[in-house]
């Protein structure tokens, strides 16, 4: 097998595998290295996202949503089902089948595009050489004209709550729980904590979420976060803010937690504990001597706006560099870098990367929040519209949430769009397109939206920016 390539990609997650495919499409001889091993013990492409992240979590979210609807919401539609039950093993098996389908799909795409895969841990050496260490410890060295580092990220582990895969879970082991826990504790009210907490709450768990920050979803717009928390509270998710966990003990097949909030020290006991306090760049052992590549204080690879590390022919993308840790951001950076290497223009606008939380209701946003604009001293105006006033939402029995549009007070240019509600993960892209084309709230307001659709909430929110919404009092 050849050891000389035009491009070597370290990592086969949604940044790495996409970069490898695009490089190969552009006529570059490409290799891709990854050390992920699937549940069957065999190498599995796709990284965290496809194996133990985005895809499997959405499979479980959908299964749990169907069960919850069957046992709750469907009654309002005149649909009843007696003694409904959930087979958790079958649900997890369905998830595993979907994962296998997609990881196998990448293998086929690599073959079709003539990308050479290497199973093992990649380490960048000097002069764009890459050492590959296989699972059996054997090593080989590859050489490339260009190297793209796409090493990804891994869960942050708390020193007093080490992952054991049985009682104290990370995002991966939380996807393989074989029975509905009576009590589930979650440390961290971020994307992973809320999504996986929602899965088990819908299936019957008593879920308690402990968030150290005083604000809920601090990264989201405050109005959207408030509306989302109101719905989660209705669902029975017990979310405690400003709750700092200090000790975790596993005793008698239970997990005992000690935490402090505004009222002092407290304790709770749960059957399983999911620790979801964030992720960090997976760069340990990634760099040899003399590479010219530098890491920041958080262990991320330092890059410029074009994902160049400053070392000749070495680039880095995705979770291991600055910017949001999102699969789609990584993919776009991978494509951009492959095209730059091939002499084409490549660009990613980090200001228009959409964010989504796949809870019920979903939360999605793009651009600046109102609190960010206030802090920056930017003059702005806002318009919002509730899904409760949208005919399609009422017909679907999905009336929770709202759309909020923020525009510049003088130019009317869209600065941010924020949503909470059904299907907003799909609706947010209208706002992304509008912002990429430097659109105004007036532009959104003048676009004809089909009736009846959920997207009419975007139309009305844009109209509301100038206090001319039709279906609500301005």
UniProtKB/TrEMBL annotation:
Active site, UniProt feature: 451
Residue intervals of the Pyridine nucleotide-disulphide oxidoreductase dimerisation domain: 353-462
Catalytic function, reaction form: N(6)-[(R)-dihydrolipoyl]-L-lysyl-[protein] + NAD(+) = N(6)-[(R)-lipoyl]-L-lysyl-[protein] + NADH + H(+)
Biological process (GO), any one: 2-oxoglutarate metabolic process
Entry's localization field: Cytoplasm
Cofactor binding: number and manner: Binds 1 FAD per subunit.
Annotated ranges, domain FAD/NAD(P)-binding: 5-334
A matching Pfam family: Pyr_redox_dim
Keyword vocabulary terms for this entry: Cytoplasm, Disulfide bond, FAD, Flavoprotein, NAD, Nucleotide-binding, Oxidoreductase, Redox-active center
Cofactor field: FAD
Note: The active site is a redox-active disulfide bond.
NCBIfam families attached to this UniProt entry: lipoamide_DH (TIGR01350)
Protein name from the UniProt record: Dihydrolipoyl dehydrogenase
The encoding gene: lpdA
């Amino acid at each position: 097998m050849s050891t000389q390539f035009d491009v070597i990609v370290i990592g086969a997650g949604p940044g790495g595998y996409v970069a490898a495919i695009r490089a190969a499409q552009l006529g570059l001889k490409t290799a891709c290295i990854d050390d992920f091993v699937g549940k069957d013990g065999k190498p599995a492409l796709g990284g965290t996202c496809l194996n133990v992240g985005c895809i499997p979590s959405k499979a479980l979210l959908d299964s749990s949503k169907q069960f919850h609807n069957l046992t709750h919401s469907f009654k309002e539609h005149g649909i009843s089902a007696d003694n409904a039950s959930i087979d958790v093993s079958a649900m997890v098996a369905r998830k595993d089948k979907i994962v296998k389908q997609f990881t196998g799909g990448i293998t086929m795409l690599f073959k079709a595009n003539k990308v050479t895969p290497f199973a093992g841990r990649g380490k960048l050496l000097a002069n764009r050489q890459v050492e590959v260490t296989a699972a059996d410890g054997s090593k080989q060295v590859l050489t490339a004209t260009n190297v793209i580092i796409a090493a990804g990220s891994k869960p942050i582990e708390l020193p007093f709550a080490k992952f054991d895969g049985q009682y104290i879970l990370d995002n991966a082991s939380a996807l393989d729980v074989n029975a509905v826990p009576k009590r589930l504790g979650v440390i961290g009210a971020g994307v992973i904590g809320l999504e996986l907490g929602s899965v088990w709450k819908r299936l019957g768990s008593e879920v308690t979420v402990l968030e150290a920050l005083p604000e809920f979803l601090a990264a989201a717009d405050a109005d959207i976060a408030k509306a989302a928390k109101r719905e989660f509270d209705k669902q029975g998710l017990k979310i405690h803010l400003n709750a700092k966990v200090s000790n975790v003990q596993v005793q008698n097949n239970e997990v005992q937690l000690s935490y402090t909030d505004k009222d002092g020290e407290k304790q709770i006991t749960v059957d399983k504990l999911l620790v979801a306090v964030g992720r960090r760049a997976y760069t340990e052992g990634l760099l040899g001597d003399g590479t010219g590549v530098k890491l920041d204080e958080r262990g991320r690879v330092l890059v410029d706006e074009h994902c160049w590390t400053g070392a000749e022919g070495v680039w880095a993308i995705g979770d291991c560099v600055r910017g949001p840790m999102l699969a789609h951001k990584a993919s776009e950076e991978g494509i951009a870098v492959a095209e730059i290497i091939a002499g084409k223009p490549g660009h990613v606008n980090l200001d228009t990367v959409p964010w989504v939380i796949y809870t019920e209701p979903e939360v999605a946003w793009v651009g600046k929040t109102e609190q960010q604009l206030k802090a920056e001293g930017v003059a702005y105006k806002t318009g919002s519209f509730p899904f409760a006033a949208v005919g399609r939402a009422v017909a679907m029995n999905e009336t929770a949430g709202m759309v909020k549009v923020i525009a510049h007070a003088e130019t009317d240019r869209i600065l941010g769009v924020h949503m909470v509600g059904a299907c907003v993960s799909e609706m947010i892209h209208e706002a992304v397109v509008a912002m990429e084309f430097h659109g105004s709230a007036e532009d959104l307001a003048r676009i004809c939206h089909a009736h009846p659709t959920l997207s009419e909430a975007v139309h009305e929110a844009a109209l509301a920016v100038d206090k001319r919404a039709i279906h609500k009092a301005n």
